[in-house]
Design a protein that fits this description.
With 325 residues, the chain is of the alpha/beta class. It is built from 14 helices and 13 strands. The chain has two domains: 221 residues, Rossmann fold, CATH 3.40.50; 100 residues, Helicase, Ruva Protein, domain 3 (Orthogonal Bundle). The protein has a five-stranded parallel beta sheet with strand order 3-6-9-1-10. It has a two-stranded parallel ribbon with strand order 2-11. Helix 2 crosses helix 11. The relative contact order is 0.15.
């Protein structure tokens, strides 16, 4: 087990790298520090990020700026209605010279994969990401290819009310650790954006501030963050309460419970703590759980949204008093 002294030094290193990454992204995304911190936390928790919002608020810019801040392999997949599953995972092609089949990797073979407008592709193509997001591998023609760590899918999507979109299948949504909404910028940030974005693209000047090797070390540090039995029970209680709710047709899965705790560990580490508080779990519950839940027909007809239902469920679960025990 890591000693308190070395753990403290590790957390100092983690915070220095996180600050460099956040500072880099802030050069592109103005006035959204909480959104940026959440995106970095998902990376360190080995999760995948879904950014959902209306067009033009900076979803793709956020994804690109995070990817460019890390010196690692990055691939972008533009999801369209005619995109095929093989475009995502790869395909075996017959080589006339060697008289053998050769595997040509698809867009998912990278450390960071940007899936732009993921809900504009058909459900069949969306499902091509299921194996790689959960198991970090791709199977084509009975051959399995391992994806190099770190591996993160950052997908953007427009709200399902927008024209030409397909709702993500439940299994696909459940594989995203966090769903974020960028939102419109405040007036001062939008004015600053007019200055910085009209003369040149700020992404062009963005240089990497860390690399894949260092990110793997930070992920290892996050896994060592302590979680007490009380916090574990609280996390499970939140998920179980969603499954019992009469207002929800689909509650949180065991995967959701695991994602919530992993995200809380990353959040605690970023704040300089080697232990998770109930507040870490509480603060992430909405972004980790909401997109996985389905309201019942009666609740939907009554105008209740998954966000408001989850708020009432979270409020009904007692918060434990303990912190580190």
């Amino acid at each position: 087990m890591t000693s308190p002294v070395s753990q403290g030094a590790d957390l100092d290193t983690l915070n220095k790298v996180v600050e460099r990454v956040r500072g880099n992204i802030k050069r592109v995304i103005e006035g959204k520090p909480d959104v940026i911190s959440s995106a970095v936390a998902v990376l360190l928790a080995e999760g995948h990020l879904l950014i959902e919002d209306v067009p033009g608020v900076g979803k793709t810019m956020l994804a690109k700026s995070l990817a460019r801040s890390i010196d690692s392999s990055v691939r972008r997949i533009q999801f369209t209605p005619d995109l095929l599953p093989s475009d995502v995972t790869g395909v075996s092609v017959f080589n006339q010279n060697t008289r053998e089949f050769e595997f040509r990797p698809g867009g998912v073979f990278a450390n960071i994969v940007l899936g732009d407008e993921i809900n504009r592709a058909s459900p069949k193509t969306q499902s091509a990401l299921l194996e790689c997001m959960e198991e970090r591998q791709v199977t084509v023609d009975n051959t399995t290819y391992t994806l190099e760590a770190p591996f993160m899918v950052i997908a953007t999507q427009n709200p399902i009310e927008m024209e030409g979109t397909y709702a993500l299948p439940e299994a696909q949504r459940d594989r995203f650790m966090v769903r974020l909404s960028v939102g419109y910028p405040v007036e001062a940030a939008e004015i600053a954006m007019l200055d910085s974005h009209t003369m040149s693209n700020p992404l062009d000047d963005l240089e990497p501030v860390t690399d894949a090797v260092e990110i793997r070390k930070l992920i290892s540090i996050v896994t060592q963050v302590h979680v007490s039995q009380a916090v574990q029970r609280y996390t499970v209680a939140l998920a179980a309460a969603t499954r019992r709710s009469s207002e929800l047709a689909l509650g949180a899965s065991p995967r959701a419970t695991l994602h919530l705790l992993r995200a809380a560990k990353a959040s605690a580490a970023i704040q300089g703590r080697d232990y998770v508080l109930p507040d870490d779990v509480l603060g992430l519950a909405a972004s980790v759980l909401t997109h996985r839940l389905l309201p019942s027909v009666e609740a939907a007809m009554g105008g209740r949204t998954t966000a408001t239902i989850l708020d009432s469920i979270v409020a009904s679960v007692p918060v434990p008093e303990g912190t580190r025990a």
